[in-house]
Each structure stands twice: as structure tokens, then as C-alpha cells.
Amino acid sequence: MPKGAINRLILHAIGAGLGATAWLAATGAAAQQSQGMTWCANKGDAFSSDLVINGCTVVIDSSKEQPRTLAHAFNNRGLAYAERGDLDRALADYSAAIRVDPGLALAFNNRALAKVERGDIEGALADFGEAIRIEPKFALAFTARGNTYFDQKNYDRALADYSEAIRIDPQAAIAFHNRGLAWRDKGDLDRAVADYSEAIRIDPMYRDAYQNRAFAFRKKGDFDHALADLNTVIRLDPKAVAALGSRGSLFEEKGDFVGALANLDQAVAIQPTNAENRNLRGHVYYAMGNLDGALAEYAEALRLDPTSAATLANRGLAFETKGEYARAVLDFEEATKLAPGNADYWNSRCWARAVAGRELQEALMDCNESLRLAPNRADALDSRGFVYLKLGDLVRSLADYEAALRLNPKFVSSLYGRGVIKQREGDRAGANADIAAAKAIRPSIAEEFVIYGIR
Questions:
Q1: Are residues 209 and 203 in contact, defined by beta-carbon separation less than 8 angstroms?
Q2: Is the pLDDT reported for residue 20 higher than 50?
Q3: Residue 316's pLDDT is what?
């Protein structure tokens, strides 16, 4: 979920519910008869932001209202400005509400939300704190402050605030859901699933909870429950693009390419500008052996989002598979620039350079960087072993292949590579055993090494 998205949900909830209800209670039945007051109160979120602004302006300009009523009018107009994206005016109105009534916790909370949107995290946290000081049982304020800590990756404080919101209001589905997100990012998927499930129990129509529970189930390897949750999301909203994309990706991982394409085609038809689903569809085409289709999808995905390191790496892999190593290296290079901490991208560039037989010293540096970022990775050790093999350094090559095989005894290219080294060193029996084991796993491995320049 993008930064600030959860807080926007909270802001909307306050504007449509608590803010309007409190204001109506303050004004009384006679005030509700005024059209301006009715628009400003916006009970049930029935009116457009323009009407709310007009109604609240009438109330504010009348100069006849009590301080608490006037403060709610400023607060509700601030909400309407925020809904329109006019944060400067929203902030000004929330501040006016606070000046009129310094005890209005709601205005402090809403000003905090606007400050979050503006990137003033310190100011936002101060306002959330004041809202909670005034109203210690303000569950939504705890949830909103938790969201702010979550966006800052301060998961422990986020968890504390979500838990307090739940203690105050055990039916706060959003607090359970968001606490699940925090558990997920801390790596505790079991607790994440438990919180998503509680959010769903409270609100069986909570699509985001199903979507995120599906993600957690998938990470746990429970594809059946993940699929069931994605099916529910799509049943609730047949145009849920994210869920369609996720279901397509899940089908692809299960080897059901027809099912994967059916979902991704539908997702792309609904939202052609979604770069992530274009990338996913390209990945399915690649898995099906349709390299030209994959490259076309990757190109479109990169047109929509030129900064996607994942798409660049996927296109690099497709170019590599087509034997276009120079283009593959260029894509992997861009991917490492965008995501320098991703060990896979460094390893991919190492392998592409090694297979091409050019820039072998640069390939060696790429593999070393990959292993620095993620030590004891069989794939990177295998790639570096191959680089050393191309360089003629059989001792180092053998050491890397054997290290890779200790991690994964069936790593086919390491088995075959070790067999080649043993063959060159005169160990015919050992060479035949390794090469036979590699061919038993992948019969085409010898032909692949010939293409790579190793006989």
C-alpha cells in the first residue's frame, strides 16, 4: 500500500462518520434545518466537497454560532478541502478550528493527517499526541498515528498504537488489518494472518484484508487458501485489478499458464496502464517459451514505468535466452543501478557477461558483489565458478562449484561444470559420474554448455 494511503482511509472515515456526528450533536435540531448547516454536517457523506465547503462557509460567516459549533464547521470544511487535495486550505481550517476550540481532538487528528500528506511527520506526530491527550479513548487517532509509524517503518510503535486502538474498540476492523500489515513487514506471517482474519470476521466485505491475507498465505506456501481469498476479492469486485494480477501470478507459479493468462488478460483489459500486470504477463509468456511476446510486454511495461528494476531484469533474462547477451547485460546494468542492493541482478549480469565470454573480469566483480550482498547463494557461486572456468582458473572454479553443490547437491550446471574440470584434470571416472548426474537432471545440459563455449 502506498505511503499515506492508510491515513487517507482514516481521514475519510472521520469525515463521513465521527466528524459529522459530533457536529450534528452540537448544533441541535433547529440548526439542522438550515441548508448550509445540513451541507456542512454532511451526514452520511451525502454531499460533494463543493457543497460541504459552501455550507460550512455560510455557517462560519454567520458569526452566530457557539465556539464548538464554529470549530466543527472549520473542521468539516477542512475535511472537504483535503478531499479536493487542497491541503493548504485544509490545514488553515483545522488550525482555525483549534484556535476556536483548543479541546477539539478531532481537529488535531485531522490536522495531523494533513501534515502526514505534506510530509511533516514530526508535526503530525505532535498533533496525534495532542488529540490522544485530549481524548485518550480516540481509537481512530491511535490507528492513524500507527499508520504514520508504519510508513516510517517504525513497526514496534505502530503495533503498540494498533493494539491500543483495538483495546479501546475491539470492533475496529481497520486496526486489526493494519496491525496485520505491521506483523507482515516484521516477518511474522502467522500473526498477520490472524489479524487479517479478525478484520474479516468483523467486516466480511473487507477486500483489502482478503487481498493481504492471500499475500501472506502465498508467502507461507499455502496456495489453496491464497487462491480462495483472491477469489473472494474478485467476487466482491470483478474489476479488482490487483487481485486479478495476483491470481494470474499464482496460477503461473502453479504452472497453469492458461489460467494465468486468462486473469492477466482481464486485468490488462480493465487497466491497460498497469505496468506491474504487463510485467507479469510478460513473465508468463517467457515461461511458455513465447520470447517475442514476453519482450513486447516488457517493453510496454517499461514504457509505462521506466524505473521498474524487476521488469528490466525480466527483459534481460528474455534477451539472454534469445542469445542477445549484449542487450541482456544493458538491462541488468540498469536494474543494478535502480536496485543496487538486489543480489539477483548482480548475479544475472555476471552470468550474462560470462556466457557472452566478454568482460570476464567485470563479470567476476558482479558475482563478488552478488555474494557480498547475499553470501552462500548456490546460484551466484555457480555463476562465479563458470567465470573462473572461462578464465581457465580451474582451482577457484572447482572450489565455487563444490561450494554451490554443498548448498544444493542437484544444482545441474555446477554438477556439469565440476565434471568438465575433472575431465580436464584427467579424473575420467569422476568426470563421467558428474556429467551423467547432470544429464539425468537436465538432458540438454551438455548442449547448453557448448552454446556457452565450454566443451
A1: yes
A2: no
A3: 98
Give the integer Cα–Cα distance in Å for 130 and 111: 11
CA 452 vs. chain centroid, Å, equals 37
Best CA proximity match to 182, nearest among 173, 172, 170, 195: 195
Grid cell for residue 398 = 572447482
Q: How many helices (H) and strands (E) does the chain have?
A: 27, 0
Most distant CA pair in the chain, distance: 101
Is 219 buried (19+), middle (13-18) or exposed (0-12) by CB count in 10 A? middle
pLDDT at 244 over 80: yes
Torsion of CA 382, 386, 388, 390, to 10 degrees: 180
For residue 433, the one-letter residue type is A
Distance (Å, whole) CA 206 – CA 181: 14
CB atoms within 10 A of CB 445: 19
Residue 60: φ, ψ to 5°: -65, -40
Listed as own residue / partner, the contacts of 402-410 with beta carbons closer than 8 Å and 24 or more positions apart are 403/376, 404/378, 404/379, 405/378, 407/376, 407/377, 407/378, 407/381, 408/378, 410/441
Domain ranges within the chain, ordered by starting residue? 1-135
Which whole number is the average pLDDT over 400-426? 97
Instruction: Give me the chain's average pLDDT, please.
Output: 92
State the Cα–Cα distance between residues 118 and 98, nearest whole angstrom. 19
Tens-digit pLDDT profile for residues 42-52? 888 889 999 99
For 257, how many CA atoms within 13 A lie in the half-sphere containing its CB?
A: 10
pLDDT tens digit sequence for 251-278: 999 999 999 999 999 999 999 999 999 9
Is the pLDDT score of 350 beyond 90? yes
SS3 288: coil
Interval 427-443 mean pLDDT:
97
Tell me the one-letter amino acid at 129.
G
Q: What percent of the chain has pLDDT over 70?
A: 92
Q: How confident is the model at residue 37 (pLDDT cuts 50, 70, 90)?
A: confident
CATH number attached to the domain at 1-135:
1.25.40.10
Residue 259 makes CB contacts below 8 A (sequence gap 6+) with 248, 251
CB contact at 8 A, 248 and 263: yes
User: 3-state class of 455 per DSSP?
Assistant: coil
